[in-house]
């Protein structure tokens, strides 16, 4: 059954601002009325914000550091 | 020899962001295979009128030897559910489909290397990544853009994200301009008819 989204524009704006600051996950936005990431991008654009780039912190830093090194090596191999 | 699965896209958001930022080529620049589970591909291309959808189809077509859409049971099940309830949402299924693709590949070769591509806010907070095999790494859209910027392959990660966020605003403005032009032409035709 489809849920009816009762959140106001102000509540959605607050969620988007928290997301842009890197303090809210996209999966959390999904649970709060944003069906598509295109809607998130459009909302950020209206507020003059950009999608967040995650700081190197949290439980996955080691894996991300290795992931970035993997990309570096792949780019070097193509030169 | 270790087999490379390549970049496995776990969610629609990296594709939509890069498409809206006119930077999908960033995903193919490292020269690695790009694997998109059918569930994720369906989510981003189901409605071709949505931001980035056509760009993603065009990009995948241009890189047939590098971009691969992989079938999953998760998507097959979702299609059945959608035929019963067209309002059903795909939330969370992209990631499940990506894990299905990964697990199938690991079942064939448990030594395989892969990089899971996540959306930035999710990669920072999700804990399940700890449970992944040692050779399965993670990367966010921002991580990829920063590496490309450092390698001089793109000018600015921030610029791409700014373009992505402004895309809808620009499309809306263009549609408004087209609509205004149509209205203005109709008004001009009416005035000319009145003068004849």
Describe, in plain words, how this protein is organized in 3D.
The complex is a heterodimer of chains A (79) and B (196). Chain A is mostly helical and 79 residues long. Helices cover 57% and strands 0% of the residues of chain A. The longest helix of chain A is centred in the last third of the chain and has 18 residues. The mean pLDDT of chain A is 88. With 196 residues, chain B is an alpha/beta fold. Helices cover 58% and strands 13% of the residues of chain B. In chain B, α5 runs antiparallel to α6. The longest helix of chain B is centred in the last third of the chain and has 39 residues. Chain B is globular, with a radius of gyration of 21 Å. The mean pLDDT of chain B is 87.
Main sheet record of chain B = 5 strands, parallel
SSE pattern of chain A, N- to C-terminal:
HHHH
Q: Please give the number of β-strands of chain B.
A: 5
The largest contact between protein chains, plus residue counts on each side, is: A-B, 43 and 59 residues
One letter per element, helices H and strands E, the order of chain B comes to EHHEHHEHHEHEHH
Mean pLDDT of chain B: 87
Strand ordering within the main sheet of chain B: 3-2-1-4-5
Q: Tell me about the biggest sheet of chain A?
A: none
Report the span from N to C terminus of chain B: 82 Å
Beginning-to-end CA distance, first to last residue of chain A: 52 Å
Shape of chain A: elongated
Low-confidence stretches of chain B: none
| Count of strand segments of chain A | 0
Percentage of residues in strands of chain A: under 5%
Total number of helical segments of chain A? 4
List the uncertain runs of chain A: none
Rg of chain A, Cα atoms, Å: 17 Å
Categorize the overall geometry of chain B: globular
Tell me the fraction of residues in β-strands of chain B, as a range: 5-15%
- Percent range for helical residues of chain B? 55-70%
């Amino acid at each position: 059954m489809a849920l009816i989204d009762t959140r106001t524009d102000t509540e959605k704006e607050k969620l988007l601002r928290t997301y842009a600051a890197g303090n809210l996950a996209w999966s959390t936005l999904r649970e709060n009325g944003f069906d598509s990431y295109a809607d998130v991008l459009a909302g950020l654009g209206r507020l003059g914000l950009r999608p967040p780039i995650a700081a190197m912190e949290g439980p996955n830093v080691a894996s991300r550091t290795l992931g970035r090194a993997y990309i570096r090596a792949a780019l070097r191999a193509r030169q | 020899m270790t087999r490379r699965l390549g970049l496995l896209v776990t969610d629609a958001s990296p594709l939509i962001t890069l498409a809206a930022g006119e930077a999908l080529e960033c995903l193919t620049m490292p020269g690695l295979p790009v694997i998109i589970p059918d569930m994720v591909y369906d989510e981003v291309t189901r409605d071709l009128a949505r931001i980035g959808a056509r760009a993603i189809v065009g990009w995948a077509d241009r890189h047939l030897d590098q971009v691969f859409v992989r079938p999953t049971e998760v998507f097959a099940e979702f299609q059945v559910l959608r035929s019963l309830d067209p309002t059903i949402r795909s939330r969370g299924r992209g990631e499940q489909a990506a894990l299905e693709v990964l697990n199938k590949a690991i079942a064939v070769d448990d030594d395989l290397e892969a990089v899971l591509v996540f959306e930035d806010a999710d990669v920072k907070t999700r804990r399940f990544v700890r449970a992944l095999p040692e050779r399965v790494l993670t990367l966010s859209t921002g991580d990829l853009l920063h590496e490309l910027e450092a390698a001089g392959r793109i000018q600015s990660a921030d610029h791409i994200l700014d373009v992505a966020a402004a895309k809808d605003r620009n499309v809306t403005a263009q549609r408004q301009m087209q609509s205004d032009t149509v209205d203005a032409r109709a008004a001009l035709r009416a005035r000319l008819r009145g003068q004849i």
